[in-house]
Give the backbone structure.
Amino acid sequence: MYVAKLLFLFIVPYNISAANPDPKTDGKWVIVIDPGHGGIDPGALGSISKEKNINLAIALKTAEYIRENIKNVNVVLTRTDDSTVDLIERPKIANRNNADLFISIHTNSTKGSKSVMGAETWIMGLASNEENLEVAMKENEVILLEDDYSTKYQGFDPKSPESYIIFTLTQSVYQRQSTDLASKIQTQLTEKIDRKDRGVKQAGFWVLFNTTMPSVLVETGFITNQSEERYLNSKQGQDSFASAIFRACKDYIDDIDNKSSISVGETGATTKNNSGTLLPAGKTVFMVQVATAVTRTEIKPENFKGLTDIIEINAQDRFKYATGIFDEYSQAVKYRKKIETIYPDAFVIAVKDNKILPLQQALEQRRKK
Ligand SMILES: [Zn+2]
């Protein structure tokens, strides 16, 4: 292994240049929308409705608004009907689709006062108080309905506060972007459709734990509040929530598209490619990819769960982040296993001159030597 002292170094990819002013023109935005619960899991219960149906109606409408009104976008839903989807599957759907944004849609409830109402948007993090922890526990509880949950979720018990220690490992790479999207959603919900503002909050939601993109969970309103339950079940209410979430996505995308076209131009003009000093030139090596993003993430340990040897690889319109530099594929596989607890979806890639090679091709080249 080439020991990587890359802490303060930053690789500038080959194929970013002034000649490529807008990286998103040919790249599609992929937005995954996750209607919470479904099938055997009704979610929270109101007096006239079930959470799962409200979530689905709002999610379908949101997808429709996004498809109709944002160019260059691909919307994927984790369910489009009343089917059961395991919690563990939902982030995987987003990861498999290389999503740029993940939005889980839910409806809140409380055992306390029926007068409690309002909208809140959550990002992954450690709950700062009991009340916040309870919301996450409630949303994670569905795990208990699934077969073999203790193996699948590595012993995670949604009802035990101790289990939530696992989330201390996840200072997410995308915390800043997730917060940005969450704030935009809250702004829309409170200023444009007049919901009571309960703010942007953090807690350990399993569905946000393993995603490799900016991710949020929206609690639209309280099914336990009579007037809010009625609003959540009305066509007008559902349309309003959907339009608010869609507009927040549009604002987010517009911001990034504007920023990236400027920053790419500047980068191309003023920086040099210094990857030769880090990756052996002209040689294929194996690395473990831990993250991918449309926007550049600053390389520092806090952004990568403490890893100090992250390097950036540019591939088409994405920034990819990888760790470890190995001569042998088997060493990279071993290393991937080692960091599995903090990056469960990491995978081995082959890299040559700061470009990703198809893995099969790299392995075949090796075999021929
Ligand atoms: Zn829910």
Summary: The chain is about 35% helix and 20% strand. The chain has a mean pLDDT of 83. The first helix runs from residue 51 to 69. The first strand starts at residue 29 and ends at 35.
